Amino acid sequence: MILTSAWIILGLPLLTAVLISLFLLRSPKAAGILGTAGMLAAFALTCSLIPQYTALQQQGQFVLESSLPWLQAGTLSLDFGVYFNGLSLVMLLVVTGIGTLVFLFSTAYMAGDPGYSRYFACLSFFTFSMLGIVLANNLIQIFIFWELVGLSSYLLIGFWFEKKEACTAAKKAFMTTRVGDAGMILGILGLTGFLAAGNTGSLNFTAVAAALPSLAIPEFWMTLIALGIFLGVVGKSAQVPLHVWLPDAMEGPTPVSALIHAATMVAAGIFLLARVFFIFEASPSALQVIAWTGGITAFLAASLALVQTDIKKILAYSTVSQLGYMVMALGLSNAEAGIFHLTMHAFFKALLFLGAGSLIHAFHSQNIWDMGARVQAEGGRFYLFKAMPFTSFTFLIGTLALMGIPPLSGFYSKEAILAAASHSEAPLFALAMITVFLTAFYNGRLFTLVFLPAKRSSAAHDAHAHPLHEGGPAMVLPLVILAVLSVFGASLPVKEWLAAAPQAAHGAAHHGFDSLAILSLAAAAAGFLLAAGLYFKRTQSLRQSVKVLAAPGKVLDRKYFFDEVYDRVISGGQDKAARYADVLERYAFVEWTVNGLGRITRSLGDQLRRLQTGIVQFYGFVIVVGVTAILYIFMAGRM
Amino acid sequence: MTLLLLPWISWLAALSLVLIPRQNEQLLKRVTLAACAVSSALVLALALRFNVQDTGYQFVTRVDWLPSLGIQYSAGLDGLSLTFCILHAVISLAAVFLAFSVRDRLKEYLVFYLVLTGAFYGVFTSLNMFFLYVFYEMTLLAVYPMIAVWGSGKKEYASIQMAVYTGLGAIILLFGLFLLYQEAGSGIFDLAAMRENPGTIVLPAAAQSRIVPFFLISLGVLSSLWPLHSWAPTAYASAPASTAMLHAGVKAGPYLLLRIAAAFLPEGLKAWSEPLAVIATIGILYAGYAALRQKSLRLMFGFSGVSHLGYVFLGIAVLSAASISGAVFLVFAHGLLTAALFAAAGILFQRTQKEEIHQHGGLAVSSPFLAVCLIAASMASLGMPGFANFASELLILISAWSAYPWLTAFAVLGILITSLYLLRMIQTVCFGAALQTSAFTNVTFAEKFPLVLLLGALLLFGIWPEGILQFIKPAAGALLP
Predict the structure, then answer these.
(1) Which of A71, A628, B343, B355 is deepest in the core (most CB within 10 A)?
(2) Contact B402/A197, CB-based, under 8 Å?
(3) The Cα angle at residue B270 between residues B269 and B273, in degrees rounded to 5
């Protein structure tokens, strides 16, 4: 029963995507309703699985699996199937739940866009691809849907394809994640090599997990395999050094950003780490690399968020940073904490992005300074709380949750990760703590600048035609639901669902207020208050008054030079190689051999100089010679 | 008996076209379309009746042709030839709609088109070496005027270059056959007998290794294997869309290599497999980089084709049942894809008369249908799952990994290069502000049908790879001793 429902959940968004693209391209209203209804149905079905699955858990059954053969050749046997356990359940809830809200929000946000139907078709396909990853029962199937996620994000980031920036961002996202995917497929290939040597032709998780201990893969190769697969995660989950695509991906419609950042795509990497953790577990050095990648990403991205002026880019770097936390948790062998934070983060990050969408919808701008100036002109401090109360209060809740302030959901999930880090190497823990401070700081900056600017006495009170206002019930409702989840999310029994083996009942869902919690709270409070104080009365960038910050500010503006180095690698490496190939082609292959041959051939026979007739005769000549020769051979053989 | 008739449907139609007055274009088109459709339907019927359990030749028919010499006109199908027949059936049916858009001397063009179509069926159904060679020559003979007369751009140069290359290739192939005959005697002529009594012709290993290079070089030329590829991009860039679709899509080279060399010279192939794998991998990267540099859309697709052929030969070089299945599957998938790419590029060129990538823009606005097809075909080419190319390349990569891990790693990098040039092309051609809106007011059925058919087939066998692998796998297993 659970498995049948899982197949249906997987199929529903695909069905809506196909129906919309085939029949509803010219009827946007129906497309929006169908897409949202499909997601809602998938979510409802997922919810109905909760009691069924917990009942199974009571009986000691934790994994359900069903599969069909997809491709078989030689010993290789690849399946297409559904693998359902607690992790799948949690991810299904996140994807379909957040998905439904994003769909609902989009019906209002995208209203009037000429590509409205196409938008919902792509969005449904995006969710389908993500669900495919979540339910896949083998590595190749994950890779298949992994690529489809890449495709759908390409189509959605580049949704406004007439805009050059959007196309470039889409291409960059696709290309960057593909670099990671190349590593991933190499890792999988390496694994198949060893599996084949051990006579295992299947790549199903259960088969691989069972075979892995007996294969005795040398430590060196195991590390390479694990790191290869991890490279895929680095790409999709935007870890350093492949994080560069995510901030640019903001060119897509804002609800898409919410979906990418909360439920799909970037979550896929974390999910993969948790799903095939048995592979990473086999290589301690790979785990160490993973933990450090996460830690460094968390820190670098948080620092980059400090200087952004675009509200979506701040949130984007914030996502990269939080993903770093999750990756770090998995690198520290604490998959539960990683997935728990993924779930909580999905709530408050979706909330923040949809809130940002609501703000952008009202302000027609993404720049936080512009927003602040408008608020100053309209009525100053707390004006926005009156004009757009739902957006403002829910945004505040999201901000506090992101900073990890108790008793909001983000507090519990972040504490679990910090606790894991505190037991590991000291520098890594320090990175994690500094990131807490930075997170609070950029949140404080964003919130102070947009929501709390002083009323300027001299502000030219030019009357905007329309006062700021909320975007209607379809936009407000998702915000409220997400805000409630951001507050109470931690009391959802996520950890109980995740349990893969019978366990003693958990004590408290968190460790309460120990010294660690006090330390991190202090860091967060310091960051937020410092930012609030610095930006409370400011009307221009901090750097203009504090000259010491100019140099580091420049480094941050140029994003630690990642983009520049990559441009160099592509134009200096790839394009140069292409130039060499081209020169080689032109001279070695065409000029010296082909044309040379042509000249020789031409000088050989007068006939060939007249191209049109000559060459047909050449052919005729070849055929006559050929046929005669064969007949001759044949007759000679007879005689 | 039906199988013997398969090529003759096209040839008889070609003959009857000669009798139809050229003014009656409607009738010319109808006869051509009917011939292609009937042939394709016949192939479909044969595929449905094909017994996948039987690894031998099926539907075998023989007619004495020169009884005094014992040369029979014999035909039959195994999984390998059936796969190529299906490929040809789909592509010839798709391409014929674009053949109708030829403006000048339509009648002659259609005659050549039908001769070419029949010749390909002849190659894929013949079980006699003599006829195999004759039909193969016939395909070359038909393609030359189709490019030289109806092509565009540097068509004379392109067709001459092609003629010289493939003509020399044919002579080398003849040499190879001659050497084979010298070693093995007249037994090599009857492929069916050869399959029925395995082990009757066993050549010494040294002789095999001596002969194999002749086949590798001649059929390498025909399949545009690096470094023998130079003629292909130029020729296909100048060819009319339907010619490029047929000749670039239906690759007879790998077929002949597997049919002849794998049957008679397995030891020789084994001896040469390592150099072949290296060459194939170099070709993947080299042609990928060359494609990155091209300004003309069709030249880029041409080089892209050379690059992808590298994966085919990598699969062949591994010489395992799984890798050869993957290679044949990729020939099939890549054929459909190449045809789709050249169809899209051909339509674009016909509508705008612009060859270079940067001269296009905003296709997604001016013709969403064509843009979607171009993007879908590009996605298939860069290995997006869901299309048959992914499944076949995956099979090749997995089976090649155990034999040549390093080469396979480089082959994976080739996919990144493919992504780079195709994404750049999509951005320039499809996205941005619309140019040339007026050229695309209505995409006709004749333009839509080929693209839908080809991309639909790619999707079908990408999602359901066993649909075509069920024919390929037993045959690939039987090819190997």
Answers:
(1) B343
(2) yes
(3) 80
Tell me the two tokens of residue A95.
């994807």
Residues of A in contact with B417 (CB under 8 A): 574
CA-based radius of gyration for chain A? 29
Evaluated on CA atoms A327, A328, A333, A337, the torsion sign reads negative
Q: What is the largest CA-CA distance in chain B?
A: 70
Among B residues 74-133, those touching chain A with beta carbons less than 8 Å apart:
130, 133
Tell me the nearest-neighbour CA distance from B464 into chain A, angstroms. Answer: 7
Q: What's the pTM value of the predicted model, to 2 decimals?
A: 0.89
- The H or E element that residue B77 is part of is strand B71-77
Q: Say whether A148 and B386 touch across the interface (CB within 8 A).
A: yes
Torsion of CA B92, B97, B98, B101, to 10 degrees: 140
Dihedral Cα B180, B181, B187, B192, nearest 10 deg: 50
List the structure tokens of B304.
């892209």
Per-residue pLDDT of chain B (481 residues; tens, 9 = 90+): 678 888 888 998 888 888 888 888 888 888 889 999 999 999 999 899 888 888 888 888 888 777 766 677 888 888 899 999 999 999 999 999 988 888 888 888 898 999 999 999 999 998 888 888 889 988 888 888 888 888 887 888 888 888 888 888 888 888 888 888 777 776 677 777 777 776 677 778 888 888 888 889 888 888 888 888 888 888 888 888 898 899 888 888 899 998 888 878 888 888 888 999 999 999 999 888 888 888 889 989 999 999 999 999 999 999 888 999 999 999 999 999 999 999 999 988 888 888 888 888 888 888 888 999 999 999 999 989 999 999 999 999 999 998 898 999 999 998 988 998 899 899 888 888 877 666 677 788 888 899 999 999 999 999 999 999 999 988 888 887 6
List all residues of chain B from 262 to 291 with a beta carbon under 8 Å from chain A: 286-287, 289-290
Out of A76, A601, A629, whose CB is closest to B398?
A76
Phi then psi dihedrals of residue B190, to 5 deg: -100, 100
Beta strands in A89-164 (DSSP E): none
Is B181 in CB contact (< 8 Å) with chain A? yes
Which residues, in sequence order, are CB contacts of B134 under 8 Å at separation 6+?
Answer: A623, A627, B122
CB contact B473 to A (< 8 Å) = yes
Between CA B165 and CA B221 the distance in angstroms is: 7
Q: Which two tokens stand for residue B303?
A: 């080089």
Q: Considering only CB atoms, which chain B residues are within 8 Å of A136?
A: none
What span, in angstroms and rounded, lies between the C-alpha atoms of A345 and A489?
Answer: 10
Task: Look at residues A321, A617, A587, A592 and name the one whose alpha carbon lies nearest to residue A440.
Answer: A321
- Please give, rounded to a whole number of angstroms, the shortest distance from the CA of A291 to a CA of chain B: 26
Calpha distance B71→A634 (Å, rounded): 9
Which residue among B156, B189, B326 sits closest to A611, beta carbon to beta carbon? B156
A 435-454: CB under 8 A from B = none
Please answer yes or no on whether A161 and B430 come within 8 Å at the CB atom: yes
The answer, yes or no, to whether ipTM is higher than 0.85 is yes
Phi, psi angles (nearest 5°) of residue B200:
-75, -35
Ramachandran angles phi, psi of A234, nearest 5°: -55, -40
How far apart CA A275 and CA A255 sit, in angstroms, is 27
Using an 8 Å CB-CB cutoff, list chain A residues near B231: 594
Structure-block tokens of residue A232: 């895929």
Task: Name the minimum distance, in Å, from the CA of B101 to any CA of chain A.
Answer: 24
Question: Which helix (H) or strand (E) element contains residue A339?
Answer: helix A335-363
Q: Do A638 and B325 touch (CB under 8 A)?
A: no
In a mutational test of the B interface, the residue from A72, A148, A192, A631 whose CB has the highest number of chain B CBs within 10 Å is: A72
Residues 159..218 of A with a Cβ closer than 8 Å to B: which?
A: 161-162, 164, 167-168, 171, 174-175, 178-179, 182, 185-186, 189-190, 192-193, 196-197
